[in-house]
Amino acid sequence: MRIAQLHRPIVAAASSITRTTHTTTIRQLQEVLGQLRIGGSNAAVEGRRHASVKSQGAYTLRDSSTIPKKLGAKKSGDSYVITGNIIYKQRGTKWYAGENCGMGRDHTIFALASGFVKYYRDPAKHPKRQYIGVVFDKADTLPYPPHAMRKRRLNMTATPIPPPQPEPELSASGIPTQVVRLGAGRKPHPRDERVMRLRQDGTYAYAEESWRLGTLVRTEKRKMGSRRVAMRHRRRKARAIGLEMRAEREDKIARRKEALDAKRAAQARKWKEYRARQAAEGAAPKPSPPTATA
């Protein structure tokens, strides 16, 4: 409802006020004003106040295409970085990862070692590509000369390794300092060889070295890859075990045959000796029987 529409009710209420007494006038005025109350829709009648200045525009979130990507160089040349620091963010391969640097799936170049950043070109790799690398010494320049020694930071000091002293084959007492025990069977496997060394405690006993004990335990390698690779590895292992069992069986048969041949040869030798002894006894003259004397 507009303010102009209230003109007639207000005029009628005012005219009625002039024709009545004071008490009646107040009561009628309250009734008329009570009829003029309008709820909810008309703010001017209810007396609510809003902003008196119009806004310049409603605030809305910007479109995602306008959000900055924050691309570009994050570290300049000769800047110190640690492992994992981002050096350059890009879309596409404007720069390539060089010495001690890696490239993520979004073409972000990051450091793989702690050092100083170097921007350079390497015509030996590519005539036009630009590379970003990390060096350990700030005075170094990239790329390194061809066939140069690889530089790594291991946090270790270089110490000369003395050459091993030759060990005599015999000890002071004339006993060999080392003996090799072969495996069982006619053709022992090289992995079954056991190197026994003479103890230095004066017991004149042989014992294996501690680091060789772990080589005696056969461990199964972890199967990596697909099921096809695992099945191929299993078949290869089964074939190797079968060949080894076959070799052991043939060795056992050969040893049994050798024992049987030796037994037969011993029996033949005994029979030959027996026949020779019987022939010698048959060819010897028989002694004459004793005669009686009167």
Describe this structure in words.
The chain is an alpha+beta fold and 294 residues long. It has helices at 7-18, 22-35, 43-46, 210-213, 227-283, and strands at residues 72-73, 80-81, 86-89, 96-97, 101-103, 109-111, 115-121, 130-135, 178-181, 194-198, 206-208. Among the domains are: 3-46; 70-135, Beta Barrel (OB fold (Dihydrolipoamide Acetyltransferase, E2P)), CATH 2.40.50; 178-214, no CATH class; 245-280. It is built from five helices and eleven strands. It has a four-stranded antiparallel beta sheet with strand order 1-3-6-5, with no helix packed on it. The longest helix is centred in the C-terminal third of the chain and has 57 residues, at 227-283. The protein is elongated, with a radius of gyration of 55 Å.
| Sheet having the most strands | 4 strands, antiparallel
Looking at the overall shape, the CATH architecture of the domain at 70-135 is Beta Barrel
Q: Helicity level, as a percent range?
A: 25-40%
Order of helices and strands: HHHEEEEEEEEEEEHH
Strand order of the largest sheet: 1-3-6-5
Text of the CATH class of the domain at 70-135: Mainly Beta
How many β-strands, per DSSP? 11
Protein name: Ribosomal L27 protein-domain-containing protein
Task: Give a short overview.
By secondary structure, the chain is an alpha+beta fold. It has helices spanning 7-18, 22-35, 43-46, 210-213, 227-283; strands at 72-73, 80-81, 86-89, 96-97, 101-103, 109-111, 115-121, 130-135, 178-181, 194-198, 206-208.
